[in-house]
Structures are given as C-alpha cells and as structure tokens.
Mid2 domain-containing protein (Verruconis gallopava), 333 residues
Amino acid sequence: MANMETATVTSGTAAVPVFPPLTTTFTPPAACATQFMMLQIDQNQIWMNPLTPANGITATSCYASQWLQSSSQVAFSPLVCPSGYQTQTAFASPAGYIACCPDGFEGLSLTANAPDNRPASGATCYSGIFSSAILVTEYNSSAIVTSTVLTATDFNAQVYAYAYDGFAASSGATSSSKKPSQNSGSSGASSTSTPGSQSTSSLGGGVIAGIVVGVIVAIALFVGLVGFCLHRRRKRNQEENAVHEVHGESTAHGTRDSAGGFDSAAGHESKDKKNRRISELSAERRTSELAASSTPLLELQEMEWDPATKEREREEKRRRESGVLGGTERDAG
C-alpha cells in the first residue's frame, strides 16, 4: 500500500486536506468473517481478508470503497465502524480519533513512523488463533497452494487484519477498549500479542448464582428470626395472662383498699380471723352445753354416792327424832 498521508486540493494559495467520510455502517459479505489466508509473501503470516494474497490477486469486496482511498490518503472523517468491527482504541490526541478492528481481536499494533495527526495509519489488528477451528487457505507468491483447518492448539500463531481509522461520527463511538502496542516493522504486523485492559467487565454465571443463593439464605434467616421473635412474644403473653387470672381469683375475696382495688392480704387476714372466731364460739357452745347437761348428774351422783353426807343426814334425823321424843316425855311428867 502507498504511504501517502495527506491529499490536498489547491484553492488559490491555500492547500485544503480532503477527508473521505464513512457515515453509514458498511456490511461486508458473510464469507469475509471466516476468510483466513496464510501468505508466503508475508513470512507465512495468517491474515483475515488480505488485499493482495498473491501477486496479481486482489480482494476488495470485504472493504468499503472509501477504505481504499483512506488507506492511501487521509483518515476517515467522520468514521462509523463497519458491521463486524468494534472500536479497538480511542486516542487522546487528536481528539475523537479512533481505530476499528474485527470483533474478537485482542489488540492494535501501531507502526513506528505514523504521523502524530494519524497515529493508527498503517496499524494492524491482531489476535490469537480462535478457540474454534478455522479454515486457512495457503498462498504462494502466485496462487493457492492448499487449504488447512487450524485450531488454537496446533501452533502458537496469530491472525492479523487491517484497521479502519478516522474521527468518530459521535462521541459515544469513541470508548476505548484496548491499548495499542508499538511495532517498528515495515509491515505493521506484531509477532507478539499485547492484550489490552478491558474497559468494562461482566459478571459470570457463577458470581450471579452465588449472589442469588446469598440473597435467598439472607431472606430465610430473616424470616426464621421474625418467626422466633413472634413465638417468644406469644408465649410470654400466655404466661402473663395466666398470672393475671390467678391474681384475679385471689383478689375476689379481698377487701377494697383506698384506691378502690382489692387488698388480697386484708381479705385473707379477715377470713382467717372469722374462721378462728367461729371455731372459738363452737367450742364455747359445746362446753356450755356439756356443763349444763352434766351438773345435775354430778349433784345426783354426789348425793347418792357420798357416805359422809348420807351419815350426816341420818344423824340429823336421829337428833330431830330424839328432840321430839324428849319433849314429849317432859310434857308427860
């Protein structure tokens, strides 16, 4: 490819650069996504859609017509990445300048002699062999030699592709996802991979599953704790209600205090005194009745069974009789 970096149109005495635009999304044929070629003329490197795979052979259908003009003249302005491409690098200077690489490619290799106003001129996109098998067509200097199916484990090789470079059509298309690497080779191809740092990261399925399990466990623990607290509260209320019922029965026989409530102690004391008084009255009554019924019997028994009393009664009777008899005799004399 030619390395002419500027194209100008003379207007009077001033030279005005001409920037080819690419304002719509170019969609290459579907075969371009799987078209890989090993080129003997380029040290047997594997390229995706090379322009000249062999002498006298060109392949331009995989590229926008403006790209051929831009690759030999000036950068696109504005630039919309083609279908199947993504913004690989957004440069700090010049402002809004980007480079687009095919989807899945790992990085961008810059040439050492690129101008400051177009740092990705002649840059090369690179990637390791994809994990799936790819069909590689081998070319010698003039024609196809053979076709070979390769996988990532066959050998430590890389795939290269051309980059689209220019000024982004909008600021939203200039997000940087890769860091470009520098290469001093004339072909612009890098022999080693320099994976860039990812601007964004996504959660894997395992992380999402772990988060879901953690949330479920937390909810289960919370529900269990709430249930335990409600059970304890219900049990405590039942115990308090039982205590209140027992207290209410005990105060039913008490006396009212000054506040209008029941004094259970006074009630118990009054009840005990009343019971003792009833017992004492019953005992006194039984004693009186027993005394009343037993006194005549005792007197009768005393009169009947006391010998001294009976003897005195006889003696008095004899004296009365003797006195009567004596008086009678005196009256007769």
In short: The longest strand covers residues 144-150. The chain is about 35% helix and 20% strand.
